[in-house]
Amino acid sequence: MFSKLLYRKRTLIARKCTQAKCHALSKQTLRLSSSSAPPGNILIQEDETVQHVKPYSEIPGPRAIPILGNTWRVMPIIGQYDISDTAKVSFELHREYGKIVKLSNLVGRPDLLFLYDADEIEKVYRQESVTPFRPSMPCLVKYKGDVRKDFFGTLGGVVGVHGEPWKKFRTTVQKPILQVQTVKKYIEPIEDVTKDFISKMLAMKDENGEMPSDFDNEIHKWALECIGRVALDTRLGCMDPHLPPDSEPQKIIDAAKYALRNIAIMELRFPFWRYFPTTLWTRYVANMDYFVEICTKYIYAAMERLKNKVVKDEKELSLIERILASEKDPKIATIFALDLILVGIDTISMAVCSILYQLATRQEQQEKLHEELKQVLPDPNEPLTAKKLDEMVFLKAFVKEVFRMYSTVIGNGRTLQEDTILLGYKVPKGVQVVFPTVVTGNMEEYISEAHKFYPERWIKEKCGNHYVHPFASLPYGYGARMCLGRRFADLEIQVLLAKIFRSYKLEFNHKPLDYKVTFMYAPDGELTFKMIDR
Ligand code: HEM
């Protein structure tokens, strides 16, 4: 039995969607923490309708079986949900159970609560504390806090770290990495990397003018070269046309893929790795150790360079040099670099795979982009500037539309820090709430003509009556824990698209590809784009 609760619900409020500059209708309800709630099981809305607050146990969802709970559902062969296709699972749960779905009794982890209501997602985000808890990566928590406690000590970084230690670290690094001035300094270096990448693409064309079957790995190399320039202050040499499989860059890419792409398996299937060193866990640790070694090597080299540098103004310093100059302990820069490299390769690479595939299969839209680029860059060889990037309005809208329709990160989430009423159910603290943006970003209720690929919906002057709920599609998350690399991710994507599509056309003349989740949601198959001179 649960106690009786009584509270007021705010009425619907119509408001302009700030993100899309289009109007969105949103309703908000008040949070009800167990301590502040008056007793009762009735919820009175401002329009005086009465609704009952239902217990957590009544939330619909797949039924758990004894001993194996719901874990069996994600097991190979016997499970009904394929863990490698979490996007499909997200759609299936919504179709079968509605806007709130509970996956309970998962062995070794808290319940997962899938929430498909943008207003309620907004509520959870807006009510989060100054130390939001993103439920992710217990394997990384074990690695940083247990296996390599000797290295990390009390400095865990930001990824997989929570509470005060997270806040302290994030406060130290957030200002430099999110400052527009810092990001602008990297336009030229990122453009240099991208020019090298395009030369490489031209050299890679086969007799049909197509990219090789492992072109996605080439995109990973471009992404690593960019992030290496930002987080390690070095050019790692990924653009070398003859990189052997055991080269340092390829080993970093493989390690990042391994660390991220096995997370779902380690977290959702029976967590044997918690109790004894499984093969998966042993390889995970070896990969993470490799990251520690690489980051230590390059950050100490950057520190040595800085010692011999005559600096007149802080503005002359790179991102890493700023952190090294302001923090006594070089481990802060090393652990920061490790977090950025760990999550900054696969995310952006898969986003780029998806965006290029969408452009290559939407020739009309690609022409619009080319026309815009011709206007902003009449001379294709003139260097990019912040002002020119600002003027690429259609380019940015196209990227947002890909993120909305094919959400690269299929969802985000928060562990509730307090009991909360969600869609009329009393959800206890500790439950992990999942926001499946891959589904909410495609719901007609929140996005007009959601099924239509329409980049203009993101352009104020062109969106007409289209509305976008501001919490239906949040590619970089929201609030104090929002993506730390978002400014660099946007910059890298913009530079790449501007450089390719100003001078070349991409086509994809093969069977359409399905989307699938590895760690990110991206086209599943060979990206053999045909590259044609303009
Ligand atoms: C298109 C590419 C990317 C997407 C879609 C993306 C998306 C996200 C999302 C959804 C989160 C969780 C935010 C939240 O909990 O509210 C996140 C966190 C994070 N991202 Fe990104 N990201 C991308 C690229 C990058 C890159 C390139 C870097 C590094 C340079 C990066 C670094 C981080 C870090 C460090 C966090 C953890 C922040 C924290 O917990 O305090 N991301 N990202």
Notes on the structure:
By secondary structure, this protein is of the alpha+beta class. It is built from 19 helices and 15 strands. The chain has helices at residues 86-97, 118-126, 138-147, 149-152, 163-178, 180-184, 187-204, 215-231, 248-261, 263-268, 279-307, 319-326, 330-344, 346-360, 363-376, 386-390, 393-405, 437-440, 486-503; strands at 6-9, 13-17, 22-26, 42-45, 50-52, 100-103, 112-115, 412-415, 420-422, 425-427, 432-435, 504-507, 514-517, 521-524, 530-533. The chain has a 4-stranded mixed β-sheet with strand order 6-7-11-8, sandwiched between helices. It has a 3-stranded mixed β-sheet with strand order 1-4-5, with no helix packed on it. A two-stranded antiparallel sheet has the order 2-3. A hairpin with a 3-residue loop joins strand 13 (514-517) and strand 14. Helix 8 packs antiparallel against helix 13. The longest helix has 29 residues, at 279-307. The site of protoporphyrin IX containing FE (HEM) has 26 residues, from helix 13, helix 14 and helix 19.
Please name the defining characteristics of this protein.
534 residues, alpha+beta, Cytochrome p450, four-stranded mixed sheet, three-stranded mixed sheet, 43% helix, 11% strand, disordered N terminus, binds protoporphyrin IX containing FE, monooxygenase, iron, Cytochrome P450 301a1, mitochondrial
